[in-house]
Write a structure and sequence with these properties.
Blueprint lengths: L16 E8 L7 H14 L3 E6 L3 H16 L5 E9 L1 E3 L2 E3 L5 E3 H6 L14 E6 L34 E5 L16 H12 L4 H14 L2 E3 L2 E3 L4 E4 L9
Helix pairs in contact: 1-4, 4-5
């Protein structure tokens, strides 16, 4: 009988610098300022050096990410973690700049991967994406029942290109993301509240964000809608922000 092995409780070292970049299109996105304020408070509390840029064009989304990568790679002290918040109109795989042109999300994600950003190699890179991913609208479903590894050789000398990244989308593929004209987006407001007030590994915090959002009913066009975030993770360790 083979005994199950205990999980290795390893956490990312967060003793170094924490850097954050927020790129937000406010044009025709009422409520964006409330989201920016909430993010600013959160980053301050979590001791992030935060930079915010409003109304980037599609090209500037790419350029600002590349500048951020240069800042990280030339930072005077070791860097522990980077947060990138991207807020704009969008569709699946694309964000729309202030100029109406589109930029591919995968191109933005690539800038900080283990190949292209040496200072963040094997360190957590968190992307928060507040944008639509399609035109579908979720009216919700009635439930009454149950809720709904890869093995590799151990080689400490190498690391996959795309590990240590966390992509958090405000909605699932193909669906709209909602934003209130005065109060901001339910996603950013819920996320900043949970990240600021709760302690625990980030994936547990994101489960709480999803739980809260799944309970909410957002009224749009006179109809109650449901929305939930989607989390894509290649983190290898627990990530604690508090």
């Amino acid at each position: 009988r083979i005994e199950p092995q205990p999980l290795v409780e390893e956490a990312y070292d967060m003793s170094g610098a924490r850097l954050a970049l927020t790129l937000c299109v406010t044009k025709a996105r009422e409520g964006s300022e409330a989201d920016l304020s909430a993010l600013e408070r959160m980053f301050q509390q979590l001791r992030f050096e935060s930079t915010m840029k409003k109304d980037p064009t599609a090209q500037q989304f790419q350029e600002e990410l590349e500048k951020f990568q240069h800042v990280i790679d030339t930072w005077k002290d070791p860097v522990s973690c980077a947060f990138v918040v991207l807020m704009a109109h969008g569709e699946e795989g694309l964000l729309e700049g202030e100029d109406g042109k589109k930029v591919r999300l995968e191109n933005l994600f690539e800038v900080l991967n283990n190949k292209n950003c040496q200072a963040l190699r094997a360190k957590p890179k968190v992307y928060i994406v507040q944008a639509c991913r399609g035109e579908h609208r979720d009216l919700g479903e009635t439930i009454g029942g149950d809720e709904v590894v890869m093995v590799t050789k151990d080689n400490p000398q190498t690391i996959p290109t795309y590990t240590d990244a966390l992509h958090v989308y405000s909605t699932v593929e193909g669906y709209i993301a909602y934003r209130h004209d005065q109060e901001g987006s339910a996603f950013i407001q819920t996320l900043t509240d949970v990240f600021s007030s709760r302690k625990g590994p980030i994936l547990e915090l994101l489960t709480e964000v999803t739980r809260r959002m799944a309970k909410e009913e957002l009224v749009q066009e006179g109809t109650a809608r449901k929305v939930n975030p989607e989390i894509q993770s290649t983190l290898r360790k627990r990530l604690y922000l508090q």
